[in-house]
Amino acid sequence: MSKIIGDYYAKAPMLPLLVQQKIERFNRNPDIAAEFEDWIVNKAYRKNNAVMIQGYTAEKLAAISEYMNGEAAFITLINLREQPEKTLKKIETGFKRK
Fold it and tell me: Which pLDDT tens digit goes with each residue over 48-90?
C-alpha cells in the first residue's frame, strides 16, 4: 500500500472495512493509484499522461458532478475499468450533474 494513500484514508471518516476495500482496489490498479497520489499531493488532476478509461479521465469525471471531486473520481475510474457497462450506465443516468 502507498503511504500517501494510506495517510489519506487514515484521516478519512470511514469505516475501516471500507477503507481496506478501497485500498485493495487501488492496489489492483497501480496506474490509477499513482495518479490519485499525485492528486492528493498536488490537489490537481494530471493534464498529461492521465489515465483514460472508456473516454473518461478523473478530471472529466469530476467535471460531471460536484459530488465526483477527488477520491470519488478515481474510484469511479476504477469502476469504469472493472465494471464498464454498469458504471457507464450510472454515469449517464445516475450522477447528480453540476
Answer: 999 999 999 999 999 988 888 899 999 999 999 999 999 999 8
**Nearest alpha carbon to residue 35 among 75, 68, 7, 83:** 75
Task: Give the CA count within 13 Å in the CB-facing half-sphere of 44.
Answer: 4
Give SS3 for 56.
Answer: strand
What is the Cα Rg of the chain in Å? Answer: 13
What does the alpha-carbon distance between residue 28 and residue 97 come to, in Å, rounded to a whole number?
29
> Can you give the pTM of this predicted structure?
0.90
Cβ–Cβ under 8 Å, residues 84 and 54: yes
**Do 60 and 47 meet the contact criterion of CB atoms below 8 Å apart?**
no
Closest CA to 70 of 11, 8, 2, 27: 8
